[in-house]
Amino acid sequence: MLNMTEETEVVDETIRIRIENLNAFFGKTQALININLNIPKNKVLAIIGPSGCGKSTFLRCLNRMHEEVGGKIKGKILLDNQNIMERDPVELRKMVGMIFQKPNPFPTMSIFDNVTAGLRLNGFRNKKKLQEIVEVNLTKAALWDEVKDILNQPGINLSGGQQQRLCIARTLAVNPEVILMDEPCSALDPISTAKIEELISGLKKNFTIVIVTHNMQQAARVSNYTAFFYMGELVEYDKTANIFTRPKMKQTEDYVTGRFG
Amino acid sequence: MIGTLYYRWRKIKSFIMSSLCFLSAILALIPLFIIFYYTMSKGLSSINWAFFTQMPKPAGETGGGMANALMGTGILISLGSIIGLPVGILAGIYLSANRTTMFARAVRFLTEVLNGIPSIVIGVVAYIIVVIPMKRFSALAGGVSLGILMIPLITRTTEEMLNLVPHSYREASLGLGIPRWKTTLFVILPAAFKGIFTGILLSIARVAGETAPLLFTALGNRFWSTQLDQPIASLTVFIYDYSKAPFDDWNRQAWAAALVLIMLVMFINILFRFVTRKRYA
């Protein structure tokens, strides 16, 4: 058998987030057990694993959203060598943005207001600057051309795929450094999925991305690194190519080849 | 053969039950039609421009209006709203934000209890806490009693409407680094606005028809008054007084005022339909 510590190290990369002995709980149930993992800077890390394995919980620990639903976190999550558990969650979430499974643009806001929500609600009022930010971020989210003439229409009038890109633009507008994506394509059709995946490839130049996905092809397509979770534990963590072509653990192999999960 | 007989009997039973249901549905509407018929036939003739613009005439003289009662009801509802809306909405927000704490459960239960207390009892309470210290009946006391009646209604609808807003919007907002209170105020509350507004309208419609608590508090007034520390007229007390008066003209005016009150409540209900029309689209 192979040594776990060897394979959970990502050696050649600049580390953005260092996770040490992370345990997460829902009441008395333990959702994550002793996770040690380093997230490399400006790369895409995919988290895969069967339902209930703790992928989403892991993601939601990284911006302390886990605590919003009554969860508890133990252990260290070091972002730039500072433990995020000691930071103000509101400040943290400006640095660590999140995209959700189901597109969730604010229903009472226009496209323009959706993109600028994070800034406006935190007191940023410069109209001209906001207009610039809307254009820049909708362009980054590959949505600008489709919506530039309807910025005042409600965000929920867009199609599902467009809504998800709107949510990405909304997250980018806050100028985060890390972006967490919780199965961002699972509610989308294949064309929209392709667009989002393309977007992710572009974004990793400037952002550290962690994406939870049920779709192994997607993990293989978009990520540089892949972590396989099972029953709350990190089973294997390696370069994506290695996970899918020559996994070291039996469980990983069974999962990626579709034998269980 | 037995089969056909059985099915025929089944069809007869079905017909009887359906007819009973239909008849009951008609029966349920009959009181409403009777109310409409009587208020229309007895009140409509007394409704004219003067009825809305003039003051009550002294006993014995015919004519006159209920301008003061209309104004009074408006003032009383406004006062009730000033007290009931902020307390109810904020309490609703609190309950929605702290769904499972012991305190929230207790408050939720107590608002239900408050909702079930007869309005006359609330009138007596307003009498004790406002009228007695002030040593006079007043619009303010009436407003307090209506406000107390509105609080549980508004609290519950606000809470329920906020709970209906999908959790994902809250998460989206928190995920952007927007603090909780701003999330509630600028994301969740606007999303629930229609429902809360509906609750407000319905609670106004409910208190607009209250008489008992006003008898102990606002008392009624035959003269024009907009002073909050003085007794004030209201449509319901106007109806109460005029319907038991020994003058035909007054009785007619009571019917007319009842008609106006029904129209007012119906208008609020139609407004409510209009506001909620697109909610499930």
Give an overview of the whole structure.
The complex is a heterodimer of chains A (261) and B (281). Helix content of chain A is 36%, strand content 26%. Chain A is an alpha/beta fold. The radius of gyration of chain A is 18 Å and the shape is globular. Chain A has a six-stranded mixed beta sheet with strand order 6-7-8-3-9-10, sandwiched between helices. Chain A has eleven helices and ten strands. Chain B folds into two domains: 2-46; 51-280, MetI-like fold (Orthogonal Bundle). In chain B, α3 (67-97) crosses α11 (235-243) and α4 (102-116) packs across α6 (139-164). Chain B is built from twelve helices and no strands. Chain B has helices spanning 2-43, 49-53, 67-97, 102-116, 119-134, 139-164, 167-175, 180-191, 193-208, 212-217, 235-243, 248-276. Chain A binds chain B through residues 63, 65, 68, 90-95, 97-98, 100, 102, 104-108, 117-118, 121-122, 167, 170-171, 174, and chain B through 166, 168-169, 171-179, 182, 186-187, 190-191, 193.
Percentage of β-strand residues of chain B: under 5%
Spans of chain B of at least 5 consecutive residues whose pLDDT stays below 50 are: none
Order of helices and strands of chain B: HHHHHHHHHHHH
Mean pLDDT rating of chain A: 90
* Total helical elements of chain A: 11
Q: Judging from the principal axes of the Cα atoms, what is the shape of chain B? A: flat
Biggest sheet of chain A, in brief?
Answer: 6 strands, mixed
Quaternary form: heterodimer
Residues in β-strands, percent of chain A:
25-35%
Poorly predicted regions of chain A? 1-8
The chain-level structural class of chain A is: alpha/beta
CATH structural fold name of the largest domain in chain B = MetI-like fold
| Beta strands of chain A, count | 10
Q: Specify Rg of chain B, calculated over alpha carbons.
A: 24 Å
CATH homologous superfamily heading of the largest domain in chain B: MetI-like
